[in-house]
């Protein structure tokens, strides 16, 4: 069976089961939206700058130490993903401040955000796109 036959069968299935496919797509989108919100709202690089300057947000960089030393956002504290659970107690003094989580591309910050929310941290956010987005926006890094 060739690729074109497979694609034809997929479109035939979608045509025959339109409601089923629509419900599946809706649930898939709802799942990703829900997962994203549980780990904290995603914010842009410009919103991160405003949050730090006007509300005293704490930036937690959850990348490993090697990546952190290679370049990080000024004022960011390094709490590597691998050792985060053992260091969670160090963050208690930040419970009443906005916290912004930063990772390489946004993949680990959601899991850390859920952990922080479970510990009573209310204002947890994630940098959309992580450090990749920060550097792509030509924003300064500290080495």
Task: Walk me through this protein's architecture.
With 143 residues, the protein is an alpha/beta fold. It folds into 2 domains: 3-36; 40-136, Rhodanese-like domain (Oxidized Rhodanese, domain 1), CATH 3.40.250.10. The protein is built from 7 helices and 5 strands; from the N terminus they run ααβαβαβαβαβα. The protein has helices spanning 3-16, 18-38, 45-55, 65-70, 84-87, 109-118, 130-136, and strands at residues 41-43, 58-61, 77-78, 99-102, 124-127. The chain has a 5-stranded parallel sheet. Strand 4, helix 6 (109-118) and strand 5 form a beta-alpha-beta unit. The chain is elongated and about 55 Å long.
Write the element-wise H/E pattern from the N-terminal end onward. HHEHEHEHEHEH
Total separate domains = 2
The span between the termini is: 54 Å
The beta-strand count equals 5
Q: Radius of gyration over alpha carbons?
A: 20 Å
Name the overall outline: elongated
Spans of at least 5 consecutive residues with low confidence: none
Please state the second-level CATH architecture of the largest domain: 3-Layer(aba) Sandwich
CATH class group of the largest domain = Alpha Beta
Q: According to CATH, what is the topology of the largest domain? A: Oxidized Rhodanese, domain 1
State the secondary-structure class: alpha/beta
The largest sheet has its strands arranged as 1-5-4-2-3
Q: Helix count?
A: 7
CATH superfamily name of the largest domain? Rhodanese-like domain
**Proportion of beta-strand residues:** 5-15%
Q: Could you describe the largest sheet, including whether it forms a barrel?
A: 5 strands, parallel
Considering DSSP H and I runs of 4 or more, what fraction of the residues is helical?
Answer: 40-55%
**What is the mean pLDDT?**
90
């Amino acid at each position: 069976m060739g690729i074109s036959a497979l694609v034809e069968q997929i479109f035939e299935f979608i045509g025959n089961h339109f409601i089923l496919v629509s419900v599946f797509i809706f649930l898939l989108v709802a799942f990703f939206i829900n997962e994203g919100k549980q780990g904290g709202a995603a914010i842009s690089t410009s919103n991160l700058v405003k949050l730090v300057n006007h509300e005293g947000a704490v930036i937690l960089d959850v990348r490993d130490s090697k990546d952190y030393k290679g370049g990080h956002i000024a004022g960011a504290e390094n709490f590597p993903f691998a050792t985060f659970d053992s260091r969670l107690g160090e963050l208690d003094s930040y419970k009443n401040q906005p916290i912004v989580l930063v990772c390489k591309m946004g993949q680990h910050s959601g899991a850390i955000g859920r952990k922080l929310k479970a510990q009573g941290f209310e204002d947890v956010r994630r940098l959309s796109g992580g450090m990749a987005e920060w550097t792509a926006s030509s924003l300064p890094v500290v080495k």
